[in-house]
Amino acid sequence: MSPYFAAEDLSMFGRDPWWLVVVKAVFCFAFLMVTVLIAIVMERKIVAWMQLRIGPNRNGPWGMLQSLADGVKLMLKEDVVVKRADKAVYVLAPIVAAVPAFMAIAVIPFGPSGNEISIFGQRTTMQLTDLPIALLYILAVASIGIYGIVLAGWSSGSTYPLLGGLRSCAQMISYEIAMGAAFASVFLYSGSMSTSAIVEQQADRWYILLLPVSFIIYIVTMVGETNRAPFDMPESEGDLVGGFNTEYSSIKFAMFMLAEYINMVTVSAVAVTLFLGGWRAPWPVSTFWEGANHGWWPMLWFVVKVQLLLFMFVWLRGTLPRVRYDQLMKLGWKVLIPVSLVWLMAVATVRALRNEGYGFADLALYIAAGVLVLLLLSFVADMFRSKGRDGRDGKEAEGAGEPAAFDPMAGGFPVPPLPGQELPPVPRRRSRGERELVASGGPDNHSDGSLDGKEASDG
C-alpha cells in the first residue's frame, strides 16, 4: 500500500456492550432533535433581524421555545387523509423521508477514536460506529430519502403534489451526482472512506485548503440536496401550491419539515468531517493549547463548526432570491457535474504523481503548465467564436432591414430580454382624462384602427 494512504484501524469499534450502544444512539437522536429546535429558532430570529422584523418573542424567554410550540401545534392539528390517496404509501412516505436523515449521523465522529471517554465507568469512543465504507453508507442512506418525497407526491392522488415530487426528485438526484464526485476527491486524497480516518488525515492541514474546489462543490450541492433557498423548489408555493407535501397536515407534515432540518444538520456534519477538520480545534487554539483535542473538548469544536454551517443556510435564505427551475438544473448538470469530474481527474493525477515519488515543486510545475494550456486553448476558442459571431452579425445586418422582435415566451416561460434585445411595444394606455372623456360619451381620438374600421362597417 502507498505510504500516502491511511491505515484504517477500526478495532476500537464494535466492542461496546448493548446498553452503551443504546445510550450512544439515544444521544445521537437527542443531538439531532435539539440542534433542529435551535436551528429553527435561530433561522426565524436571524432572518427577522436581516429583514428588520421582530421575530418570535412570545413562547419562552426571548421566544426560545417557539419551535417547540410549533411542534406541539402541528401534532394537535387535525390529521386529514384525502380520499383518493393510497393510504398505506401516503402514511409511509413521511417516515421514509425522516428516518434516513437520522441514520447518517451514526458514522460521524464527535471526537478522536484513540481518545476514549468514560460513560458510566465504561471506556468508549465518541462515535456510535465506523465502517471502512462509511461515506458510501452516508450516500446510500441519503438516497433513500428521495423515495419518501416521490412516494408522497404520487400517493396523494393529486396533480400538484405529483409534479412537486417529480421535480424534487430530479433536483436531488442531479445534485447527488456532483456530491458523490466531491466525496471521491476526498477518498483519493485521504486513501480511506472511513470518517474517523479522514479526520485523522487532517491533523496537519484541513482539506478545505487542499481540496477547495471539492469544498465549494459540496457546499452548493448540500444546499440543493436539502431543498433550501435559493434552491427551495419544493416550497415554491407560487407555482406548485406547496409541492409534494400539499396534501399533508398535522404530524405527517411536521415529519417532512423535520426531515429537511435533520438533513441540514447531517450534511453540515459531513462537511465538517470531510473538509473542516472534524472534531479538531481550529488553528490558533490547537497551537498554544495541547489539551484542545482531548477529553470532551473535541465535541465543542465539532458543534461550533456545525452551527456555523447552519448559520450559512440561514444567511443564504435571507440573502439570495429563488432561482428558476431551469437555472437550477442547468447549474447541476452543465456546471457542477463537469467541474467536479474535471477536478476529480486532476486530484487523481496529483495522487498518482505523488505515489510515483514526484515532489511538490514538480507537481506545482505540472499543474501550472496544465492551467496555462487550458487558458491558451480557451483564448484561441474565444477568438474564433468572436470572429464567427462578427461575421454572422455583419451578414445579418446586410440582409435584414431590422432585427426580429424579441419573444419573451419563446422558451416556454417568460424570460427577461438579454443585452441588445428589446421587448415588443406595449399598447399605449389611455390617461385618466381620456378614459373619463370616453366614458362620458365624448369623441375617442385615440382608438385603434380596428375600432375605426368596425365603426365604418357599422355605418
From TrEMBL:
Biased composition (Pro residues): 414-426
Stretches for region Disordered: 388-459
Pfam families: NADHdh
Superkingdom of origin: Bacteria
TM regions (residue ranges): 18-42, 89-111, 131-154, 175-199, 205-224, 261-279, 299-319, 331-351, 363-384
Chief site of localization: membrane
Subunit structure comment from the entry: NDH-1 is composed of 14 different subunits. Subunits NuoA, H, J, K, L, M, N constitute the membrane sector of the complex.
Record's bilayer topology term: Multi-pass membrane protein
GO CC terms in record: plasma membrane
Catalytic activity annotation: a quinone + NADH + 5 H(+)(in) = a quinol + NAD(+) + 4 H(+)(out)
InterPro entries the record matches: NADH_UbQ_OxRdtase_su1/FPO, NADH_UbQ_OxRdtase_su1_CS
Identification of the protein by name: NADH-quinone oxidoreductase subunit H
The keyword Secreted belongs to this UniProt entry's keyword annotation: no
Annotated keywords: Cell membrane, Membrane, NAD, Quinone, Translocase, Transmembrane, Transmembrane helix, Ubiquinone
MF (Gene Ontology): NADH dehydrogenase activity; oxidoreductase activity, acting on NAD(P)H, quinone or similar compound as acceptor; quinone binding
Keyword hit for Iron: no
Biased composition (Basic and acidic residues): 388-398, 445-459
Location(s), subcellular: Cell membrane; Membrane
Annotated family: Belongs to the complex I subunit 1 family.
Gene: nuoH
